[in-house]
Amino acid sequence: MLLILAQAASIPYILDNESYYIQTIKWLNNYGFVEGLANLHLFLGQQSGWHITQSAFSFSFLYNEFNDLSAFCLLLGITYSVFRLQDYLTTKDSNQLIFGLLPLFLVLLFQFISAPSPDLPIYILTFFLFYIFLEHYNKMTIGVFNLLTTFVLFMLYIKNTNIALIILPLLLFIKHFKDFVPKLFRISSIAFLVLALFLLKNIIITGTPVFPMTTSLIYSFDHVVPEKIVSMYYEELKTYGFYITAEEYKSMNAYQLFVRWLSMPKLNGLFNKISIILLVVCPFLILRMKRLRNYGILYLIMVIHLMILLVTSPQYRFHLNFVLFFSLFCLAIAFHEKIKIIYFGLIASGLVTLLVLIVPLDFNAFSSNKFLLKNSTFNIENIIIPHPKTKLMTEYETHTLGNLTYHSPIKNEFFWASGDGPLPCVNKVQLDYYEYWLHLIPQMQTADLKDGFYAKDISKP
Fold first, then answer.
1. Predicted TM-score of the model (pTM)
2. Which of 94, 98, 169, 323 has the most C-beta neighbours closer than 10 Å?
């Protein structure tokens, strides 16, 4: 718990925090859902359910630096893991050991908790979801089914890249069709409400029911994000996962892209290789344990999830929840009843995490991103006053573009950078790029920020 508190009070490590996490929550705190906000900064169109939750619990009217809901989520996950390990020591049930070994990845998970990353809750909730599924697979009730479905709905609201998880409640529904059909009103109502909120949120912020979306609708809102911007984003999203240019991407076939993905350097390549190893090894271990039905379903979901990512955005952090779970699945089999090794591994993990927390280290062996080469360390002064929720310690200058007056960081760290600047905040370099290459500029609907934004095509008279 003390380590988690210390990390939460330290410098935020994740780069996305500086591009849109802070700004998303700031807009939510001050104005709620703003029409056409994605026209100001495309990433603000994501509006993850986790950021909405962080906004609800940020209490900005009391203190402006609360930004640590992910740290609380990890604390819940580790606490849950401790109870599962205690159950394993009593029952010697390997299911309990899988979840009891979660602290082995503490040093990795710590890098996500000093900012409200939507990835961290997905990792933790995946373990909750899978544990409940495995424990109740052979004695499924409508109450457990509703709980599992609620978890999946919340996870999709946090990050829709986890769409493959919807397979879990669907398969359970098919298996227990006769028993569950008369009792589905409550969970169906929740599912419909979540879907309606998801679509409505996207329509308000981006002008389309799903973000990002290039397909034209029957009715087009005047605040819809232009197709040119969304198409450019799609191109960058596909190529970013392979660290190649758009020209290289178009010239490579599926096999070449797979080889490129598998042979990527540093942390990306490491987790990609681990994913393939797990795909090969886990079926044999599942058959050995004679638990084909329950673990086989989770394995199937992992395969489908990875296939979806390979054709959209194959970044390792998007499938890390499955990598963590099935890695611990393998370790639980390898270290079953080897209590001394288990204790040694958990203690070693805690010591390594403490080392990374207090000692500045060079992460060049793990990342090529210049902003991620140094770990986020804890300083003594953070005991009293936590570090600000941004690591971009820069001043902001005011610019005017048409009827839009906005704030831009003076020190331009990267293209999407905005940090903790005053609203509305967007990098001038980004707007200049859109204006020059796409002939589009964001404009205010009225003189009031709460009324939103639209994209003006300056190539038209």
1. 0.91
2. 98
